[in-house]
Amino acid sequence: MKRNTFVPCLLAVLTVVLPAKLQGAEASANPGYHFLKEIPVGGEGGWDYLAVNEAARRLYVTHDTKVVVVDLDTGKVVGEIADTPGVHGIAVAALSPEVQLGFTSNGREDKMSMVDLKTLKTTTKVATGKRPDAIIFVPQRAEVYAFNAGDHSASVFEADDGDPEGAIPLPGKPEFAVAEPKANRVYCNIEDKNLVASIDTATRKVVEQWPTAPGESPSGMAIDLEHHRLFIGCANKLMVMMDSTSGKVVATVPIGGRVDATAFDPATQLAFSSNGEGNVTIAHEDSPDKLTVVQTLTTEPGARTMALDPKTHNIYLACAKFEPAAGGAPQQRPQIVPGTFKILVYGMGKAESR
């Protein structure tokens, strides 16, 4: 993912009515996502991925050289994982009720930290490829995949002890990835080639390369495991819905600009695209071959990384305030105002006052 790059722009807000019946959802005719509360974090530096640990009720937020830990039920910061230089992502591996592990991709030191999530202490660090970015846990094989932007590879590790299992060459620069354990597959966006790479987790080889066209520069990815559908946020303002068994693009919908993260809620069949221009596009999977935009949710400029809590259906976005551009000219990388880093929470429940 791109670390908090931002270009200010005008925002048009559109709200559309959601079909009354959602598969497994207790929702009204309108999904009604709206601002619930703000969680102050503070500090300095950029950020990237967020991850939810549903069972432990924790949100992990990457923040420059550390990972901030938030209690999902109270909305309070309860700790941090230190010494993660240039951290991009964190993967959560619940190997047993007693063994709860986290793995961070530390982009500035080309390493992965292995963390005891109960104590938030790093137990070991191991070398990855160059500039590790996305990182995921593959539960069926109890392995961790770190995707390296610098040398176009995926480093594979055993989750229980962090031992390296080798590297997988990729056809281009990797962005986000998801696992489909029953299919023995990991799918990864290849941003610079407009592809999805399908990796066989048994052989640790890329076995398919699927074009994302008409989507370009794929970034965020989420998966509907029941219907074998990938949701891919693309830089040309499209969300692509792809069949994960064949690689066929079965539907597309328009999204906002500067997408980074994508999420899917299996209970509501809603797919989310967080867009740095200051909104989240929410689409409904009407059927395995039909996707419909149902709401464009106003957020804040720069809020482009996101995580979803399947229990509450809330979404969490990271952002901060930025220094104004000198002379009013747009900046590609504006300076972050120190102490303004925060988490924005949106959902269908009762909002707190700002």
Describe the structure.
Among the domains are: 45-169, Methylamine Dehydrogenase, Chain H (7 Propeller), CATH 2.130.10.10; 179-298, Methylamine Dehydrogenase, Chain H (7 Propeller), CATH 2.130.10.10. The chain contains no helices and 28 strands. The protein has strands at residues 34-40, 50-53, 58-63, 66-71, 76-81, 87-94, 100-106, 111-116, 121-127, 132-138, 143-148, 153-158, 164-169, 174-180, 185-190, 195-200, 205-211, 218-224, 229-234, 238-243, 249-254, 259-265, 270-275, 279-287, 290-298, 305-308, 315-319, 342-347. A four-stranded antiparallel β-sheet has the order 1-28-27-26, with no helix packed on it. The protein has a four-stranded antiparallel β-sheet with strand order 2-3-4-5, with no helix packed on it.
Chain-wise SSE layout:
Elements: E1 34-40, E2 50-53, E3 58-63, E4 66-71, E5 76-81, E6 87-94, E7 100-106, E8 111-116, E9 121-127, E10 132-138, E11 143-148, E12 153-158, E13 164-169, E14 174-180, E15 185-190, E16 195-200, E17 205-211, E18 218-224, E19 229-234, E20 238-243, E21 249-254, E22 259-265, E23 270-275, E24 279-287, E25 290-298, E26 305-308, E27 315-319, E28 342-347
Antiparallel strand pairs: 1-28, 2-3, 3-4, 4-5, 6-7, 7-8, 8-9, 10-11, 11-12, 12-13, 14-15, 15-16, 16-17, 18-19, 19-20, 20-21, 22-23, 23-24, 24-25, 26-27, 27-28
